[in-house]
Protein: 3-hydroxyisobutyrate dehydrogenase
Amino acid sequence: MQHIGFIGLGTMGAPMAANLLRKGYAVTVWNRTAAKADELVRLGARKAATPAEAARAADAVITMISNDAAIAEVYDGDNGVLAGVREGAVIFDSSTISPELARRLAADARTRGAAFFDAPVTGSKPAAEDGTLVFMVGGDEATLRKHESILLAMGRKVLYMGESGSGAVAKLAHNAIVGINTVALVEGLAIAASGGINAAQFIELVQSGGAGSKMADLKGPKLLAEDYSVQFSLGLMLKDLRLASSLSDSLNVPTPMLEAAKSVMQTGQALGLGDLDLSAIAKSYEQWTGRKLNGGGGDK
Structure:
């Protein structure tokens, strides 16, 4: 039985770890807020006191952490993943981080005799729960293929993107599209609502026509119900758009649509919407237009 160390038990990490347990892996978990591990312990996981302890006996380590600073805290230092990882182990980081940090962690892991992969995911909370995530991976392909069954225990597809850092680049480019599509959906709904169009009929039209998208399918029902429970938070999307903006600057790629979406998400963050689902950006448009977006054109 392969032993997995799983670090980071938030919206995505907890269901991912649960799927590993269901597939028969031995899993040791660590989370900064220790109580978040309790349900996984009830499912059969063991709780570690530090990231190093979670990594020490693991054949593979998986991390799912919110941002670059938190990743550095988890990996570095005497209690970090790199201090505990054993020679021959593999590390999959499924966080969304900068390509620069991914490359640095890959180099640090090599000095420990371990293989590091930047392996972010797409699919958000429903796919994490269903085990249908898609992984985009940077690192050594031959080593990846030997161990990709671990990722397929949590997902439906593993896409190899290239050398270390390539998974992170792909994820930032991907999430730039997600952020733009979400803003486009909400903005279109704001136009329709302000023009007296029934919101449910408009969402059905979007899903049936050329404006259809994965975001329309995922967020349309949430917008109609004003259900802003988190599948993927507005705050994390803003973080990703900022990373994507920085990456595009370094690559000298003009990104006017990315910058517009980032600005809209920043307004949502300023309104205190950061901990809600990114579809909660609708509240910004409701403030600007003076109308409920799901109200068929009626005033708030």
Observations:
- The chain has two domains: 3-162, 169-289.
- The radius of gyration is 20 Å.
- Residues 166-194 form the longest helix (29 residues).
- Confidence is low (pLDDT under 50) at residues 296-300.
